[in-house]
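User: Quick sanity check before I run a bigger batch. Here is a single chain. Can you write out its predicted 3D structure?
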Amino acid sequence: MERKLLRPTADLVFKRIFGREKDIAIEYINLFISPPHPVVDLEFLPQEIHPDVQDGKVSIVDVRCIDSIRQQFIIEMQLVYHEGFNQRSLLYAARAYSQQLKKGMPYSDAQPVYLLSIVHHTIKPDPGKWLHHLSVVDRTDPEFEVPGINLIFLELAKRKKMGNFSIDNPVDRWLTFLAEPEKILAMTKFDLSVYPNLMKAAELLDESNYTQAQLDAYDRHLMAVYDINRSRIESYDKGIDKGLQLSVAIYKDIQDGQLTLEAIALKNSISLEEVKKLAAAFK
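Assistant: Done. Predicted structure follows.
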């Protein structure tokens, strides 16, 4: 019987690859987060970030680790859009940042926290911008920065639509692995052997690496993602969300980020103001 190959963006598989394989996590962090001090070694931390108050929410992330100079990294895979996603990301990063200092430690001991979110929804409706780096900067002088909390958003679907991937480019290789793993799996073992971390990640897509209980959880996860995304499209199509009559075509145009808001308004014969309201609702 032919073995099943799993999707790397699924919760179970993503955590197995990036949350347990140190060399893979290091390469990915240095490529997409690009901290001023590159990571040379790291230690994986618990996924739970507990609140400072007794009745606060517990933050549970996909991957959390700390490197040899105490920089902290959080990596999240988001297949489903959640209301307040940007604020949620900021809360997770801020909580991790605030909890690193213990009583008596000077504030200067605080090290940066980087949160990388790989998302399938549109962060910003700019067709050419798929990677966003946010930090605390002076809006009147962007060169003045208070280091500490960093948010990185990677729009995977948008980058995939842009095409022009090159296997010789390490960024493109890893994006292809996440967006179209079949292209990586189609490479010969000899060709893949040049990229040992990518080869290891590809091997971990084989279902033989997981128990039956894990595979059942994998199937349930993908079905849940499918149901949620389908219901969102249907709700927009019926005009339920935000009280606006939004068609699937308009919804997809905004999600894809390939057209400007003006172009979407013109294409669908609605006002620019309506499109702006819809775009704001998707953030």
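The chain is about 45% helix and 15% strand.

User: Great, the batch can go ahead then.
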